[in-house]
């Protein structure tokens, strides 16, 4: 009875799991068994390789490396052990180790492109059907840099939009809508630390510079217990650690941006560094164009930047310390040249300016330690922030001799969120094909949903006022445990549990999220997979703007607004055609969402004197079901994939659409893509992508009528003495209209040439190669206007954003 009373409940279960794992570790006795451990890394740069396969002769016993490139194998003692490490895109390495004592070995793998082979580098070499995972997408950075890019700038998020189950919101947008979810339901991690806003240029480019990234993967379902806090996906991005062998760098310029990166060793090969910076070029054109078009009276500019820095230091053979920093932001500004007008006493001079800024800041300190040959630990301390600020200023000067008239005023709107995070994660390898992960996370949130500030100074008065939502603090603590194990020769599973406790405004929320994923081999190269995941999200994103700019508010779950919840089940088949090097996967999924929120009809957050909780409808539901097909080839001269998604995505709110279910605005029945990359020669690569999607759903007026309101007055000067009546529109069901289908062809070519001290790369291509007029938004127009009323029939018009756009960029590496 005492045992059950101590460990009763979800937190007790996690506590029991952690203590049991610790007891198992301490009780482990070699007794005829030895442990072989170490890391797998790139021979040229020293970069760790996550997901590399390490196995004994014949491949019967093996494991894969964790995110830090660490592996551990506990085997029966023998005279010697032949151990092999492999990673797709690298030549295999084999070593013979003493099999009667615990041994540490570092595998340094040589990239295939240095051996003259044509293979895709950076992906796991474990066959798809044998991985204890599903609904997981990985595109090697080297491969996505060869894909056609908007105006020649490679983008890591846009490449994932070409995969099944992932959609772009609208033309040109880099946001990810994963299996019916919205962008705020994606957990984006940069070196294990959340980052909130992931787009530049109004959503057309992501904040991730491909030159600073070593690995990126997207999880759509079957979520391991170590991930939590969002409903729809996990985007796990890893920064490079820096070249251990020599100083190297990369610099390039394109239409969208100019970038530079540098990496190398700092001290005796134990310390490495990476610095990377990127700046947008659009303001260089917009400044000149706006000045010319306004006769020099005003200047409009848009710019963005990203900067990353990372230092890695090997404290001891078992300890490694990392410090990372990321800064990124956007700025849209309008500056007006001082104008002079006539005043009551003489000339007056005035000047207007507006400035919109938003961006992320992130800093982290991480410590990796190999605690025992079987236990690996990772501790992280981090701070992350997103801030949005929109400011307008006005200055008026009296140039008359009296000079008594004048005004200096400023108005601003700010919002944001700030987190301080502490976490610890452990990987334990009790035996081959068995890995236990457990850990804990604590987060202090600070939300600023929206605050207005106004100040005005005149010779006679002074006014300062602040109104709107105040800062809200919240705390979140999570514990997790997961067990990945091969139960039989054919059956493997990952079973986990995540327990969360969240506090805000004196209110506590809690939840337990079970996770289960099973893989069963039905043949040598075929597996059936199934997964279940329960997710909870303790923050919301309020959005009433589809333009892509971050005019959105991050707000916490509160007493009045409950946390979001989701459950997802998936069933799939994975098969490898070994002779062709082709992987085929087929997955069906169903996801239900609860406690969603939306703005009330006509509500906006700019009226911040009203509490945001009074402007939303709550208790929303969502249901998404779909079928995804992916056929992918990763080796050979011709690589790429074909993806297709058949899905339905619906929402329901009691206070919207008369309580009836309606299509979500990004519901797409059909979504498909074809991606091909062909290596003509080792230094010449051709690529193409073609995408197709059902048009977005939206609500349109189905008719209009004149409102009888004579207060608008009698028109004078007209013999007919007409009255002018305002028009009102009649709407039907929400999102009952569909835009035209979307499709686009992009072409690209990459030319690489070895030059003195490095290589140079030219990228050319075309976005929307056959200049398809895809709809960005549509609107009604009533024809000509004679000054009093419009004539003619109302018609529906479409605005298209991008015709065919050429792409050109130049890079030089050394």
From TrEMBL:
Keywords from the named record: Cell outer membrane, Membrane, Receptor, Signal, Transmembrane, Transmembrane beta strand, Transport
Location of the TonB-dependent receptor plug domain: 153-230
Cleavable signal peptide: 1-27
Localisation: Cell outer membrane
A family per Pfam: CarbopepD_reg_2
Superkingdom of origin organism: Bacteria
InterPro entries to which the protein is assigned, alphabetical: Beta-barrel_TonB_sf (IPR036942), CarboxyPept-like_regulatory (IPR008969), Plug_dom (IPR012910), Plug_dom_sf (IPR037066), TonB-dep_rcpt-like (IPR039426)
Membrane topology annotation: Multi-pass membrane protein
Name this protein carries in UniProt: TonB-dependent receptor
UniProt organism field: Hymenobacter fastidiosus
């Amino acid at each position: 009875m005492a045992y059950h009373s101590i460990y009763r409940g979800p937190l007790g279960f996690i506590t029991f799991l952690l203590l049991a794992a610790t007891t198992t570790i301490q009780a482990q006795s070699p007794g005829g068994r030895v442990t072989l451990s170490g890391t797998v890394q790139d021979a040229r740069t020293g970069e760790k390789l996550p997901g590399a396969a390490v196995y004994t002769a014949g491949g019967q016993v093996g494991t894969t490396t964790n995110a830090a490139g660490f592996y551990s194998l506990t085997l029966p003692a023998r005279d010697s052990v032949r151990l092999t490490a492999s990673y797709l895109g690298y030549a295999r390495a084999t070593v013979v180790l003493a099999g009667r004592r615990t041994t540490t070995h570092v595998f340094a793998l040589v990239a295939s492109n240095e051996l003259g082979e044509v293979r895709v580098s950076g992906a796991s070499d474990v066959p798809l059907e044998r991985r204890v995972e599903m609904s997981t997408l990985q595109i090697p950075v080297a491969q996505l840099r060869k894909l056609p890019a908007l105006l020649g700038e490679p983008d890591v998020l846009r490449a994932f939009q070409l995969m099944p189950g992932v959609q772009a919101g609208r033309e040109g947008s880099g946001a990810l809508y994963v299996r019916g979810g919205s962008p705020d339901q994606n957990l984006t991690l940069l070196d294990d630390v959340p980052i909130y806003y992931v787009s530049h240029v109004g959503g057309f480019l992501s904040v991730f510079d491909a030159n600073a990234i070593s690995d990126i993967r997207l999880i759509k379902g079957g979520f391991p217990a170590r991930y939590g806090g969002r409903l729809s996906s996990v985007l796990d991005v890893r920064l490079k650690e820096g070249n251990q062998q020599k100083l190297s760098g990369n610099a390039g310029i394109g239409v969208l941006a100019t970038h530079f990166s540098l990496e190398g060793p700092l001290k005796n090969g134990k310390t490495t560094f990476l610095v990377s910076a990127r700046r947008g070029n659009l303001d260089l054109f917009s400044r000149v164009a706006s000045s010319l078009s306004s006769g020099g009276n005003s200047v409009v500019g848009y710019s963005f930047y990203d900067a990353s820095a990372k230092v890695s230091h090997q404290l001891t053979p078992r300890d490694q310390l990392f410090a990372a920093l990321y800064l990124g932001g956007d700025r849209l500004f309008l500056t007006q040249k001082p104008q002079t007008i006539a005043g009551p006493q003489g000339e007056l001079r005035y000047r207007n300016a507006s400035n919109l800024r938003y961006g992320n800041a992130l800093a982290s300190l991480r410590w990796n330690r190999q605690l025992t040959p079987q236990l690996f630990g990772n501790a992280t301390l981090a701070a992350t922030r997103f801030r949005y600020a929109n400011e307008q200023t006005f200055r008026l000067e009296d140039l008359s001799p009296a000079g008594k008239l004048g005004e200096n005023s400023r108005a601003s709107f700010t919002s944001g969120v700030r987190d301080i995070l502490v976490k610890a994660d452990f990987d334990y390898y009790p035996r081959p094909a068995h890995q236990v992960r457990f850990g804990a996370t604590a987060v202090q949130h600070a939300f600023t949903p929206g605050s207005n500030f106004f100040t005005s100074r005149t010779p006679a008065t002074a006014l300062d006022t602040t109104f709107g939502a105040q800062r809200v603090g919240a705390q979140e603590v999570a514990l997790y445990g997961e067990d990945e194990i091969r139960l039989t020769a054919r059956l493997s599973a990952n079973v986990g549990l995540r327990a969360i406790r969240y506090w805000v405004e004196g209110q506590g929320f809690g939840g337990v999220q079970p996770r289960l994923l099973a893989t069963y081999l039905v043949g040598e190269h075929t597996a059936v997979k199934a997964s279940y995941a329960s997710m909870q999200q303790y923050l919301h994103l309020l959005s009433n703007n589809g333009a892509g700019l971050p005019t959105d508010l991050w707000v916490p779950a509160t007493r009045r607004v409950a946390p979001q919840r989701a459950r997802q089940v998936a069933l799939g088949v994975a098969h490898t055609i070994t002779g062709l090097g082709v992987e085929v996967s087929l997955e069906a999924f169903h996801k239900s969402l609860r406690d969603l929120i939306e703005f009330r009809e006509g509500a906006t957050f700019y009226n911040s004197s009203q509490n945001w909780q009074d402007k939303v409808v709550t208790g929303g539901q969502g249901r998404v079901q779909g079928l995804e097909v992916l056929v992918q080839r990763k080796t050979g001269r011709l690589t790429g994939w074909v993806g297709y998604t058949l899905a339905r995505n619906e929402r329901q709110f009691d206070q919207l659409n008369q309580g009836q279910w309606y299509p979500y605005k990004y519901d797409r029945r059909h979504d498909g893509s074809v991606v091909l990359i062909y290596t003509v020669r080792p230094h010449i690569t051709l690529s193409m992508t073609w995408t197709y999607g059902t048009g977005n759903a939206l609500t349109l007026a189905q008719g209009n009528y004149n409102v009888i309101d004579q207060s608008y007055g009698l028109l004078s000067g007209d013999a007919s003495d007409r009255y002018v009546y305002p028009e009102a529109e009649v709407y039907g069901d929400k999102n009952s209209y569909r835009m035209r289908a979307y499709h686009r062809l992009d072409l690209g070519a990459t030319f690489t040439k070895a030059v003195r001290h490095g290589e140079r790369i030219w990228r050319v291509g075309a976005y929307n190669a056959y200049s398809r007029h895809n709809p960005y938004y549509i609107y009604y127009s009533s024809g000509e206007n004679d000054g009093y009323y419009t004539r003619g029939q109302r018609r529906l018009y479409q605005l298209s954003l991008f015709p065919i756009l050429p792409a050109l960029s130049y890079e030089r590496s050394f």
